[in-house]
Specification:
- By secondary structure, this protein is of the alpha/beta class.
- It is about 30% helix and about 25% strand.
- It is built from twelve helices and 15 strands.
- It has helices at about 40-50, 115-120, 125-135, 155-165, 180-185, 195-200, 220-225, 240-245, 250-255, 255-270, 285-295, 310-320; strands spanning about 5, 15-20, 30-40, 60-65, 65-75, 85-90, 100-105, 110, 145-150, 170-175, 185-190, 210, 230-235, 275-280, 300-305.
- Strands 3, 5, 6, 7, 8, 14 and 15 form a seven-stranded mixed beta sheet that branches. It has a five-stranded parallel beta sheet with strand order 11-10-9-12-13, sandwiched between helices.
Length: about 325
């Protein structure tokens, strides 16, 4: 039977279970997708822990996961834009970590055949989030932009998107990620105590914009360094928004399947690279979240629901259901 990640009480990764569920059926203008790869994101842990229970209460047993890439397995009535076996990218809050998901056809983006599944799945979450954060601070050619948490899933994409706009990018991260950031064309600066002074030394002519993906006082440092509040965007410090009047633009503010398709096209052209540090099988979802919650990963962590050596055969099978 199909599998899905569920949790029946708030708590840490230990409350997550992989359970058997019935195969869902698509309704009108919906598509059933066989998930190949699903993302793992820090914000999902907050929901599972009950941090956002007042705003987004769980409906136990609750599902988990938002972003995914998979194969069209069944078409509901009225779907004309997809065919069986098509490769797609989607976003379904609290449902993506499952063998099968049902999505409105209008919310799916085509996955280019020449990009890896592991690179495609995160685009609807961290890819769109990175685009939203960079767009919010509007970097232009000649600007100097700082990205905190620059080696993480969102940060490693944000630095690339800022560079595509012509900006010089400084990325804050641990010293073990310095060479990785240099490989992306980014000036690495070690985070931690004394960061403001190190940023001044790295940008003697000043900093024009600041993208904060990490929190922990980064917005205060950006303000201290003279960055205008309207050119600071934080994804991790809601209190700083009220305190300083900075921006907090994120995925939910800009998501469209068209934007996901544009990001996928950048990946296909080699202009954007999605880095991932680990691919866990679905049964190891608890360990995947323990790893992501340590906040020291390089790039993305994802769940592989279909083994790589079975993906091509599965696509062929879906395209020829009567064979």
């Amino acid at each position: 039977m199909p599998r899905a990640v569920k949790f029946s009480r708030y708590g840490g990764p230990e409350v997550l279970e992989v359970v058997q569920v019935s195969r869902p059926r698509p309704g009108p203008k919906e598509v059933l997708v066989r998930v190949v790869v699903a993302g793992v994101n820090p914000g999902e842990a907050g929901i599972r822990q009950g941090v956002f229970a007042d705003r987004w209460p769980a409906d136990f047993p609750e599902g988990q996961g938002n972003d995914f890439a998979g194969l069209v397995a069944e078409l509901g009535p009225g779907v004309a834009d997809f065919t069986l076996g098509d490769e797609v990218i989607g976003y379904l809050p609290r449902r993506a970590q499952a063998d099968y998901v049902v999505s409105p056809a209008a919310l799916l983006a085509p996955k280019p055949a020449d990009i890896d599944w592991e690179a495609a799945a995160p685009l609807s979450a961290v890819g769109v989030t990175a685009w939203a954060a960079v767009d919010a601070v509007a970097p232009t050619a000649g600007d100097t932009v700082v990205v905190s948490g620059a080696a993480g899933g969102v940060g490693s994409l944000a630095v690339q998107l800022a560079r595509l706009r012509g900006a010089q990018v400084i990325g804050t991260a641990g010293p073990h990620n310095a060479d990785f950031l240099r490989s992306l064309g980014v000036v690495p600066v070690e985070h931690g105590p004394g960061l403001a002074d190190r940023l001044r030394a790295a940008a003697p002519d000043g900093i024009d914009a600041f993208v904060d993906t990490f929190g922990q006082g980064n917005v205060d440092i950006a303000v201290e360094l003279g960055v205008a509040p309207q050119r600071i965007n934080t994804l991790a410090d809601g209190r700083a928004v009220a305190r300083h009047g900075v921006r907090s633009r994120a995925q939910e503010d800009v998501f469209t399947p068209q934007l996901v398709a544009e990001l996928a096209e950048l990946v296909s052209k080699g202009l954007l690279t999605v880095h991932f540090s680990e691919v866990y099988p679905l049964e190891q979802v608890q360990e995947a979240y323990r790893q992501v919650q340590r906040r020291h990963t390089r790039g993305k962590i994802v769940l592989g629901l279909v083994p790589p050596d079975e993906r091509a055969a599965l696509a062929d099978e879906l395209r020829t259901p009567d064979a």
